[in-house]
Fold:
Amino acid sequence: MGAKHDVRWLAAMAGIVIAGVTSAGSARADATCIAAYEQAQTLRKDGKPAAAKAQAAICAKESCPSLLSKDCTKWLAELEPLVPSVILDPRAPSGGVRADVRVKLDGAALAEKIDGKPMVVEVGSHTFVFEAEGAVPVERVVTVREAEKNKKVTVTMAPPATATVLERPIPIGVWIFGALSVVALGTAGIFALDGLGKKSDLDACKPRCSADDVDAMSTQFTFADVALGAGVMAGAAAAYLFFTRPAVEAAQPGVASTGRARMTTRMRPVPFAAPLAGSGGGGGAAVGLTGRF
Structure:
């Protein structure tokens, strides 16, 4: 009898413990259901249907008291059409959809890649940040209204812009005209010195100087004037090309500069000097610029 009495006593105590544990678990479940029930109503009044729906889903479970789950189930059906959603649509510059994009919503991670499915968001203004390898992050502020479904948020994920470096290369015409100017001015100096020497000789033989000696002096001075004019014009052309040279994009390694290519096909002015026909023994010349490509 003693052994049977001990067994019955142990069974009774086990039943009491199980009942206590079940009652405690039920109390905790009821507290969670009540809190979700209250939050669902508060959030709905605050104009946050997405958050209200999440709380209503908690208190609509069968484990919650029937009085609460009945109301919460009804609220779920009412809130469903009010919850807004967006479809994230990041694109490459070519127009293709990029799936390898990370998205943050109001500073918190929202998606690690894009699958094209609608995403539930709360009503209001939100900041989306799109990030992808090899692309500049894009920030987009979007306002979502109640019951607005599948609102597309389209952005273009462009690569970082490379800094454009401009330079003003000196055209080859500057060097050509500069060299011509130096040569012409030097030649003018030589002819002028020779003419002055002949003039000095003529001063010594006046008034018995021969006509040929006078013509020779005049010719030297004429050549000096022509060379001087050509030198001045060539120098002016070099200065003009130098100060008006365009700025072009600097050539990158392995990339031809289109600005340089265009410059090589531009017309280059070239000075000329030529004797005038029928100028007589005194000489004469014409100077000017002609164009070459």
